[in-house]
Design a protein that fits this description.
This protein is an all-alpha fold. It has one domain. It is built from six helices and no strands. Helix 5 packs antiparallel against helix 6. The chain starts with a helix and ends with a helix.
């Protein structure tokens, strides 16, 4: 019988990307970042305990609870080159149905695209291949 923690492990994969889409300021502010980081460490601790106590089938979706820590650190690491190059935080670009030709926010769009690919798709691929 699967536990609640294992059944809803997909939530661990999407916590940080959801915050990224809703409000990037929360990930950037020091106080809120520390609160989210402590929460993700608590999730990882519970996951480590569950992995040591129970035996799981493959693929082990319980490992998705480690994704929030990975996503937070990835976001912070990706901000460093952006700050060095652009001297600002990435902006949330406006949603467009068709490409408008405006290249002023291309770096911001690329930042968001790479972050989502690396924080959502990469962990899923790695867990499914283990």
């Amino acid at each position: 019988m699967n536990s609640f923690f294992e059944e809803f492990s997909i939530i661990g994969l999407v916590i940080v990307p959801t915050i990224f889409f809703i409000s990037r300021k929360v990930l950037r502010k020091k106080d809120s970042f520390i609160i989210i980081f402590c929460f993700t460490i608590a999730l990882a601790s519970i996951t480590t305990y569950k992995l040591s106590v129970e035996e799981f089938l493959k693929p082990n979706f319980l490992l998705l609870w480690y994704s929030p820590i990975y996503s937070l650190l990835l976001y912070r690491l990706m901000l460093i080159p952006f700050w060095l190059r652009k001297k600002r935080d990435p902006k949330i670009p406006p949603r467009e149905m068709f490409y408008s030709g405006d290249v002023s926010l291309i770096a911001d769009k690329l930042f968001g695209f790479i972050f989502i690919i690396l924080s959502v798709v990469l962990p899923m691929v790695l867990i499914l291949n283990t």
